[in-house]
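pinging the channel bc i need a second pair of eyes. not urgent but kinda urgent?? the chain im working w is below, pasted from the shared doc
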Amino acid sequence: MFLHISVMAACARLFGITVRSISYGVGPTLLTRGKVHLKLLPLAGNLVLKDTREETLYDDDPGLDAYNFQPLWKQVLLPLSGVTVLLALSLGIAGAQGWDSFSAAFGQIFAGALAPLSTAQALLDAGEAYARAHACPLVFAVFSLKLCAFNLLPFGGLNGGQALLAIARGGKPFVAWEETAAKWLLLPGLAILLAWAAAFGLHAWQAMSLQAGLALGRKPACTRQFTLLAGMSCPSWRSIN
C-alpha cells in the first residue's frame, strides 16, 4: 500500500500534476504532515489530485497542472504506475511461480466472490497454509500479486477502471457520460469487495472458534461446517486509489 500510493504520488509530481493530498490507510487520521495523512487501518490509501471535474478553478487558472488536462498517455499511465512497480517487485521476489500466481488470481477473485462460503474458504485455507510454509518475502510477494490483480480489474475505484475511463474519454478533460459510467462501474467492484469481506469474516470467526475450543481443552469441532454444507469437499483471493 505504501509503495503503491507513493509511486503514484511521485509519478504525478514528475508529470507536473498538483497533488492535493496523500492518504495511507483508511479510517480516523492518526498523523498529518503537510499533504500526507496517516490513517488508523493500513488496508488501502488514496491520492487526491487537482482535477477540474472535482473542483472549481479561479478564472486566471488555466488548469494545466490538473490531472484531467493531461495528455491521454499520462492519464492512463498514472493510475497504473503504482500497481506496475508493485507487480515488478513482487515478480522479482517470487520468480517464475509469480506469473502463475498472478495469472490465477483473476479467476480466484471472481470464483471466491461468487462462493464466499465454499470456494473463498478453500482459497483462504490454501493461502494460510502457504504462509506457514514459506518465508515472509515470498508470502509478501504472492499476497501483493493478488492485490495487483484486484487493482487491475476494470471497475470503478480501482486502477484498472480509472485507466479504462481515461482511454474511453480519449484524452478529453471531461465527457458528459463519465459520471454515470463511473457509478455503474463501481457496482461490480463493490460486490466483489463485500463478498470477500464476508469470506474473510467467516474465516476469522472459524479460526477463533477453533482456538477457543483448543484453549478450553475440548476436542476441536468441525470448523468448516458452513463450507461443507455448501458442498466443498477439500481445500485445493475519483481519487486515484
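so The helical segments are 2-14, 72-94, 96-114, 119-133, 136-151, 159-169, 178-215, 225-229. and The two ends are 10 Å apart (CA to CA). — does that match what u expected or am i reading it wrong
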